[in-house]
Write the structure tokens for this entry.
Amino acid sequence: MALVLLALVPGIAAHVWFFGPGVLIQIALATGFALGIESAMLRLRGQSQQPFISDLSAPVTAVLFALCLPPLAPWWIALIGMVAAIAVAKHLYGGLGYNLFNPAMVGYAVVLIAFPLEASRWLAPASPFSDAYTGLGASLHAVFLGAPAAGMEWDALVQATPLETIRAQASAGETLAEIRENPLFGDFGGRGWEWIANFYALGGFFLLWMRIIPWQIPFATLGSVVLITVPFWMLDADIHPFPLQHVFSGALVLAAFFIATDPVSGCTTPRGRLIFGLGVGLITLSVRRWGAYPDGVAFAILLMNAAAPWIDLHTRPRIYGEGRRR
């Protein structure tokens, strides 16, 4: 767990660089709520506080959840999300090691569905040297009082994400070449977002090098997205995004390395992990294309969590001498 948190540091630093200290506020809130709820649930279940409070599983869930939130989301979003993640998705299933669904994604899906406005107020990416950068004081004001600081308005602060922009403008009949003229976009994905994805990938490669996560899930998740989108892009690049646009927009890279690789809620067999990653990539693209939400990573992971036991059952390596399963 400590190595996972360490691997997240480069991506968090990039996140703060482009979206301000509100990211750190969300992490602190979610972590505090997660530890408090973890302690309360352990007491209710009659279990000792150690080693569960100090195993860092709750902070990992909290950080992954917080990184999915807009930096200026109100404080109670983190509270509700952690109740859903820690109390419901984790402890009501039996605690660490028994949860069927990824707790961080359960928490995020709950707040995304229940509070779509608060969960979609993303800031425009800006460097700390830009006038558009939201400092610590303004971030604290927005998070704890639910409104921007004096002289600021939500309409001036928030901006559609790259995925939301593509969805809205493509529906209006604009081509991708016209859409990408928007300064919101960078070389491949969204401006700022592609750098954040790069740094999360750097942390993911560190986990692969340390053999903390299996290679099959990130390989299958990212590879399936590229392989599925290449033919459509080659067929008509005016309406189908460049494959790397899908990879470097939204939370796909973060999910591929840090969320889908959860050993408890994911698959355990080598072939099962490949199928699991393929499913995450396919469902993510389906939600982005036909769903009601711009990014479908959270829903893709939760749906594949539900399918993981069945996938493991049918991809279990056959023991020598065992008859073929029917």
User: Anything to note?
Assistant: The chain has a mean pLDDT of 89. Residues 22-44 form the longest helix (23 residues). The two ends are 39 Å apart (CA to CA).
